[in-house]
Amino acid sequence: MKTVFITGTSSGIGKATAKLFHSKGWKIIATMRNPAAETELSKLKNVIVLQCDVTNKDSIKSSIKTGIRTFGNIDVLVNNAGYYTIGSFETATDEQIRRQIDTNLLGLINTTKEIIPHFREQKSGTIINLSSIAGNVTFPLQALYHATKWGVEGFSESLQYELKHFNIKIKIIQPGVTKTDFFGRSMTVTKDDNLKEYDSYYQKVMNNLMKSVVEGSNPEEIAQTIYNAATDNKSKLRYLTGKFKGVVYIRKLLPVNLFRAIVRFSMEK
Fold first, then answer.
1. 106-141, pLDDT tens digit by residue?
2. Which of 147, 173, 124 lies closest to 8 in space, CA to CA?
């Protein structure tokens, strides 16, 4: 029976992934910032729910050590924890900038760094990093989020070379828009009441963005892609999944200026 360590399992893709792996007979180390509030995963056999704040290195170290001590080993790491920041970059506070990068990028990097010695010693392991179609294409008012996801892409692609020698695989999951609380409780909006120049533009973009959320994928669909990546024994690096993934293909086919014009029209109309 294999073991998977998953960050950010309190809701959405993380929780759906934990439940899917469990249904397939895996042992689950489900981590989240507030495990005391979890009432579903904690009732399942061969599941431990641990506190892990990916912005805190000690928290990462403790949860990984506890997971290994409980189940003996970890076979797969799913770096899922993250959240979404939207709004004009000029109105972002220093704290919002740091928190977005600390969670989505540095948190993933630090969790990966902590698990590598374990995988190297056992001469096997798979690291699955949650990126996004936002790691391939860009949209208005999402500069901070894009910065983290493009960072995940570059970090993962480079790291795969040096870890291949130890039989450690890197996989990148690139979901499209997904129906989770990503655009609700987990969303941070940058705003400065003294800077009104972006207000009308922000409202237009948000109105169009929210329309796409209604048509987004269910988290279970993304969880299935994560499970497939963990079990397919392929050297494949990127897994594009969910609705709106066609946007990535269109971006590759069209001239840059034409694609940008389409984005402006669809998001700013």
1. 999 999 999 999 999 999 999 999 999 999 999 999
2. 173
